[in-house]
Specification:
This protein is mostly helical and 110 residues long. 72% of the residues lie in helices and 0% in strands.
Length: 110
């Protein structure tokens, strides 16, 4: 998460992308990974929904920060949409997984 914050808020954004809209794919992929990790930490649906909402909120707050901080980056609604879409895809793909429960079962075997 800290790496994502650093990459999102560092100075830059002046260079033109080699592939149009590649940054949206990168946003979606990053937030899919983050959301999948977040929902895997919990067993019950309530905490999973809250974890997903926190990931989406983080994406929105980073976009706002990009618009407010003098880093040369811009706040973009399309980036926030890509973040949210990626988070949703990551949550859907890993909703039924419970990584911590699985790890506990492995280590609790006699």
């Amino acid at each position: 998460m800290l790496l994502g914050l650093f990459l999102s808020l560092r100075r830059g954004g002046d260079e033109l992308p080699l592939i149009p809209h590649l940054d949206k794919l990168i946003h979606a992929t990053g937030y899919a990974i983050l959301a999948s990790l977040a929902v895997c930490l919990f067993e019950k649906p309530g905490p999973r929904w809250r974890a997903l909402l926190w990931v989406i909120l983080l994406g929105g707050l980073i976009e706002i920060a990009q618009g407010l901080l003098p880093t040369g980056r811009m706040m973009e609604a399309a980036d926030f949409a890509a973040n949210t879409f990626g988070a949703g895809i990551g949550a859907v793909l890993f909703w039924r997984r419970n990584a911590l429960g699985r790890i506990e079962r492995v280590f609790s075997k006699p």
